[in-house]
């Protein structure tokens, strides 16, 4: 990034994607907006973060994911997710999905940091091993190994079945 104008253009072109990504991971509108603001404010203060080694959207996607995962790690956020999971829902149809999302977010917050990112890409975004390897800058084999570790951790933590989605 060379100037505030470059960052403004980046915001105009890709801000909606950052917001959508943050909503997807966090499940909460206001926190998603906070992540959007935090990311672009950080670029204004430290424009050298994006060094052009990848496409801008790849950088923004990865940075957004990291900011969201950091928020999930926050104790207050975890407590809020548990409270939401326990709160009565408007419709019985929403209840199972809401419970699964709350459980998934809770499990994510308890996974080691190095496993969170690959878990979000695979289970939330339904990306392939190859797509994840491209975003993370690693091999498909490494992605597979990380996903196996995620499954082991989930089973150890007593969460969902840990089975790979079909």
From TrEMBL:
<dbReference type="GO" id="GO:0016987">
    <property type="term" value="F:sigma factor activity"/>
</dbReference>
<dbReference type="Pfam" id="PF04542">
    <property type="entry name" value="Sigma70_r2"/>
</dbReference>
<dbReference type="Pfam" id="PF08281">
    <property type="entry name" value="Sigma70_r4_2"/>
</dbReference>
<keyword id="KW-0238">DNA-binding</keyword>
<dbReference type="InterPro" id="IPR036388">
    <property type="entry name" value="WH-like_DNA-bd_sf"/>
</dbReference>
<dbReference type="InterPro" id="IPR039425">
    <property type="entry name" value="RNA_pol_sigma-70-like"/>
</dbReference>
<dbReference type="GO" id="GO:0006352">
    <property type="term" value="P:DNA-templated transcription initiation"/>
</dbReference>
<feature type="domain" description="RNA polymerase sigma-70 region 2">
    <location>
        <begin position="10"/>
        <end position="76"/>
    </location>
</feature>
<protein>
    <submittedName>
        <fullName>ECF family RNA polymerase sigma factor</fullName>
    </submittedName>
</protein>
<dbReference type="InterPro" id="IPR013325">
    <property type="entry name" value="RNA_pol_sigma_r2"/>
</dbReference>
<keyword id="KW-0731">Sigma factor</keyword>
<feature type="domain" description="RNA polymerase sigma factor 70 region 4 type 2">
    <location>
        <begin position="103"/>
        <end position="153"/>
    </location>
</feature>
<keyword id="KW-0805">Transcription regulation</keyword>
<dbReference type="GO" id="GO:0003677">
    <property type="term" value="F:DNA binding"/>
</dbReference>
<dbReference type="InterPro" id="IPR007627">
    <property type="entry name" value="RNA_pol_sigma70_r2"/>
</dbReference>
<dbReference type="InterPro" id="IPR014284">
    <property type="entry name" value="RNA_pol_sigma-70_dom"/>
</dbReference>
<dbReference type="InterPro" id="IPR013324">
    <property type="entry name" value="RNA_pol_sigma_r3/r4-like"/>
</dbReference>
<comment type="similarity">
    <text>Belongs to the sigma-70 factor family. ECF subfamily.</text>
</comment>
<dbReference type="InterPro" id="IPR013249">
    <property type="entry name" value="RNA_pol_sigma70_r4_t2"/>
</dbReference>
<keyword id="KW-0804">Transcription</keyword>
């Amino acid at each position: 990034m060379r100037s505030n104008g470059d960052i403004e253009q980046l915001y105009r072109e890709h801000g909606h994607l950052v917001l959508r990504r943050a909503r997807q991971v966090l499940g909460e509108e206001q926190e998603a907006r906070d992540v959007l603001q935090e990311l672009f404010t950080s670029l204004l203060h430290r424009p050298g973060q994006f060094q052009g080694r990848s496409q801008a959207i790849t950088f923004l996607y990865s940075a957004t994911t990291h900011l969201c995962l950091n928020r999930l790690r926050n104790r207050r956020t975890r407590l809020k997710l548990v409270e939401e999971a326990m709160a009565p829902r408007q419709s019985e149809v929403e209840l199972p999905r809401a419970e699964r999302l709350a459980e998934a977010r809770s499990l994510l917050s308890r996974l080691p940091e190095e496993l969170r990112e690959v878990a979000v890409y695979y289970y939330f975004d339904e990306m392939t091993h190859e797509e994840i390897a491209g975003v993370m800058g690693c091999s498909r084999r490494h992605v597979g190994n990380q996903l196996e570790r995620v499954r082991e951790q989930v089973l150890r933590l007593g969460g969902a079945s840990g089975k790979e989605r079909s």
